[in-house]
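Researcher: I'm preparing a figure for a lab meeting and need a structural model of a single chain. I don't have an experimental structure, so a prediction will have to do for now. The sequence is pasted below. Please return the structure as C-alpha cells so I can convert it later.
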Amino acid sequence: MKTILLLFLLPTAIFAQIGSKVQASKTSLAGKWTNKQFGFAMILQLNADGSGMFDEEKITYTTTATTLSVKQDGETTNYKYVLQNGQLTLSGGDLDAPITFSKGEAATSTASSKPASDTPSGKSNGSSIVGTWSGNGETMIFQASGQGSYNGVGFQYSTSGNNVSITGSTGTTTLQYAVNGNYLTLSGNGTTAVLQKGTANGATSGSYGQAQGGNTGGGIDQSIVGKWCWANTSSTSSSSYNSTKCIVINGNGTYEYYAEGSISGYGGGGYGGSNSQSSDRGTWKVEGNRIHVQSQAEGYKVYSFEKRNHPKNGDPMIVIDGDTYVTYYKKAPWR
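Model: Understood. Here is the structure written out cell by cell.
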C-alpha cells in the first residue's frame, strides 16, 4: 500500500471511534442541509417533528446514534450518517457514494465552512502548499479554493500553522506539512512522504497545473463526447442569482465552452441587476485522472479529471478542476 494512502487510512478508525462517541450523546439532525457538489442545490430538510423534504420529495424520518431512516412513498431507506464540524455525511441506502451536506444555504460542494484562521493556500512554511505534487506513482493536488485530490479522489482541505486538515468521505485527517522549494513533505502516524512539485512527467504547475511547453499527453476518450452542464440558482427575499456553465466535447478532440450569469434584485422602488457572459474553445485530451486543454483564451493547461455517477438518479457526470458537470442529454451511467 502506498505511503500517502496509509497516511489517510490509518487515522480513519480513530476518527470513527471519536465520531461514534460524540453522536451517542447528540443525535438531533433537525435543520436545513444543503449540498451543491453536483452543480445544483440538493436540499435535505429535517424538521424537529420528524417530517421533512429530501431532493424535493416529502419524507418522514427517525434517527439513532449512527442511522438516519427516511420514509418516502411508503418505503424506508436507512442511511449511515456522520455529524462532524457542522457537516452531515450520508452513506449507504440508495446512494452510490457518500454525500456531505452543510447546514444552511451557504453550502458549496462538500467543503465545510472553515474558521477565519484556516487558510487553504497556507504559507506558514514560507511557501504555498497550492499546486500539483507527485512521486512514487502518486499525485496530490491542492487548489487555492480549498479543494484537492489524491490520485483523482477529491477532498477538501484547510491549513493552520504547519498542519493541513484533509476531509474526505471517511472523515478528517490532520497531517504536518513543510514546503521547501519544489518539495512537499507530509508527516503523520510515524510516516513521512516527500513529493516533488509538478505532474508525473515533470512539468511544474500551480493551481491544478499550468503545464509548461505545451506537451499535450493523453488521448481522445469517446465516452465523454457530448454536452455537459453545471448550474447554480439561489435567491433571497430581495435578490436572485443564476449561473450556468456548459461544455460541448466533440469526438474530434475539440471543445466549446460558454458561461452566463445574472443577478437581479429589488430595491429603491425598482428592479436592478446585471448579466455576464463568457465563452472559449480549444482542444482536449484525457490522460488518466487529468485532462489536457489547449484553450484559445488561456493557453495550455492541465486540470484534474474524474467520472462520477449522480448519487440519487445515476446520471453520469464529469468533474473538471473540482467543478461537476452533469450530462445534458440522456446517457448511461458510468460502469
